[in-house]
Amino acid sequence: MSLRKLTYILWLFVLGIFVAVSCGKDPVFEQGDYIYESDDFTKVENINGVIIHWAEDMEIREEQKNVIRNLVANLVRVEGGTFQMGAQNTDALGDNYDAEAQDDEAPVHEVTLGGYYIGKYEITQREWRAVMGYDLDWPEQYGVGERMPAYNVSRADALQFVAKLSAMTGLAFGLPSEAQWEFAARGGNNTRHYRFSGSSSVDDVAWHKGNSQSIVHPVGEKQPNELGLYDMSGNLWEWCRDTYGPYPTTTQTDPLVESGSRYVLRGGAWTYLPSYCRVTCRDAYNGEAKSVSNGVRVVVN
């Protein structure tokens, strides 16, 4: 090795030690990915292609981190695309005909969405407890357990959950828009145009009034849809970001409705008839209302 090359290597080593010392950090780190941010090295975690930046001003226990890591690992990427949203019951040869479609599911209209991540499962009671630090009202008679979805969630509760989760991780967690929810429930760009999320046979994919035996069920027991998402039909209604109102007649891009007094829920539930589990069915509640039929699924935009 030439003297010039040896001198260059030694210079790089000294420079590395200087940078590490000036940042107040050890020059060797045990694990994780790192980014250089302002005048300090900040440790981040790359899970499932999603970067977690743990809040340094919050006390986050390792147990909480492990639960959140698992939640992030179970986010599913939904590639952006265009689809026909809604359903109609008047033209058997027209787009998205469904004899059981309600008036508020029409008109069928074209929607284009950008990409996003959505939870593979409804938020579980374990995840709720880890993030929020308390339990909601989960009566033993309806179902309690780590894999049980968190029910009796008001929309106000759900917004507090995603806000705290965002603060802890540095990620933009939120509730899905109604269009994001329906596109994902349909299977995104992989859709096979099923009536329910993942099948045209409701019992394959959904817990509903006819098969639930009057209890909530653990997440992920039925078969998934085309994107690998579970329980988007049945088990619990899921809160959306949008306020409830009539559909437009024009094409839309990343639509979001924020002008009403009630908020949209999607997916049907264990207490409802199978027809409510269809991917186009809509419901609406006051944002402060709680129900054993209502839960939450998160997105990251």
Layout of strands and helices, then pairs:
Blueprint: H1 3-22, E1 33-37, E2 40-47, E3 50-52, H2 62-73, E4 75-78, E5 81-85, E6 109-113, E7 116-119, H3 125-132, H4 155-169, E8 173-174, H5 178-185, H6 202-205, E9 237-243, E10 252-253, E11 263-266, E12 282-285, E13 294-295, E14 299-300
Parallel strand pairs: 6-10, 9-13
Antiparallel strand pairs: 1-2, 2-3, 4-7, 5-6, 7-14, 8-14, 9-11, 11-12
Helix pairs in contact: 2-3
Per the principal axes of the C-alpha atoms, what is the gross shape?
Answer: globular
Label the structural class. Answer: alpha+beta
Give the neighbour order of strands across the main sheet. 4-7-14-8
The major pleated sheet works out as: 4 strands, antiparallel
Order of helices and strands: HEEEHEEEEHHEHHEEEEEE
β-sheet strand percentage:
15-25%
What is the count of DSSP helices, taking H or I runs of 4+ residues? Answer: 6
Mean pLDDT: 90
Poorly predicted regions are 12-32
* Through-space gap between termini: 51 Å
Q: What is the gyration radius calculated from CA atoms? A: 23 Å
Helix share bin: 10-25%
How many beta-strand runs?
A: 14
Structural notes for this entry:
This protein has 301 residues and is an alpha+beta fold. The chain is built from 6 helices and 14 strands. The strands form 4 sheets. Strands 4-7-14-8 form a 4-stranded antiparallel β-sheet. A 4-stranded mixed β-sheet has the order 12-11-9-13, with helices on one face. A 3-stranded antiparallel β-sheet has the order 1-2-3. 39% of the residues are buried.
